[in-house]
Design a protein that fits this description.
Distance between the termini: 54 Å
Number of domains: 1
Helix content: 10-25%
Number of helices: 3
Shape: globular
Number of strands: 10
Strand order of the largest sheet: 3-2-1-10-9-8-7-6-5-4
Structural class: alpha+beta
């Protein structure tokens, strides 16, 4: 009986040790963040000159109003974002007060400089949460908290691809509302890796307003056309340098 108990405890110890090994990151958390920062800097201007189709579905559930816009999103060589609206269906209230404001905010954020809002160690504190499967690809999960309470920064999570160190998912809540009429803003952003670049795939957001309740919006990006000679992000590992 003692022998059986000993074997049982041995199996528990081995299993626990194996689980700990599988959960440990391939690199130290600080190195992962540094690799991510390097990869992000390499592709900082990679989408300049790109274009993509965008489908924006928005609704005001409390008012039972909704709308959908199909548009082309262009990013100039200087980083300026513009939209060509191709088709809209739905309520004009949603078009004017939800979709149009999102398009304006997207362009304004870029014009003010993306580096000030980028998810980097300059703007955020990173806390390692573990290694996770993202489909067939492993990702490093970090909790992020802004170093300063600034409009546009958020508290939440970022998922970093374990091979390229590029972002594949961001989620959280803005730490400061851009307007008194907006109580809070929650979002999830998904990215695809295309030709060594992290390109937007989908954004889901809920804006809780003081006047008309929640405004829900889903933005789908597809048919992304990259510039002819973008700056590709290569696989980096600061530990090997």
């Amino acid at each position: 009986m003692r022998s059986d108990l000993k074997r049982f405890l041995f199996c528990i110890i081995v299993a626990s040790f194996g689980a700990a090994l599988s959960a440990a990151p391939a690199s130290a958390p600080d190195s992962i963040v540094e690799n991510y920062w390097v990869a992000s800097q390499q592709q900082e201007h990679a989408l300049e000159g790109a274009s993509m189709e965008v489908d924006i579905q928005a609704s005001l559930p409390k008012l039972k109003k909704q709308g959908r816009l199909h548009a082309l999103r262009h990013i100039s060589r200087l980083g300026r974002i513009t939209y060509d609206a191709l088709r809209f269906e739905g309520d004009n209230t949603v078009k004017k007060h939800v979709i149009a404001r999102y398009l304006s905010a997207d362009a304004d954020a870029q014009s003010k400089g993306s580096s000030s809002l980028a998810v980097t160690p300059v703007n955020y504190k990173f806390k390692y949460k573990g290694l996770r499967d993202n489909g067939s690809d492993p990702v490093y999960v970090f909790e992020v908290k802004p170093r300063h309470k600034v409009v546009g920064l958020f508290k939440g999570e970022i998922w970093i691809d374990a091979r390229t160190f590029l972002r594949v998912r961001e989620s959280g809540r803005l730490v400061k509302s851009p307007s008194f009429f907006l109580k809070k803003i929650e979002f999830v952003k998904y990215y695809d890796l295309q030709d060594g670049i992290s390109v937007p795939r989908e954004i889901r957001t809920i804006v809780y307003t003081r006047l008309v309740g929640p405004a829900e919006m889903t933005i789908d990006f597809h048919n992304v056309s990259l510039p002819e000679s973008p700056k590709r992000a290569s696989v980096v590992d600061v530990d090997a340098q």
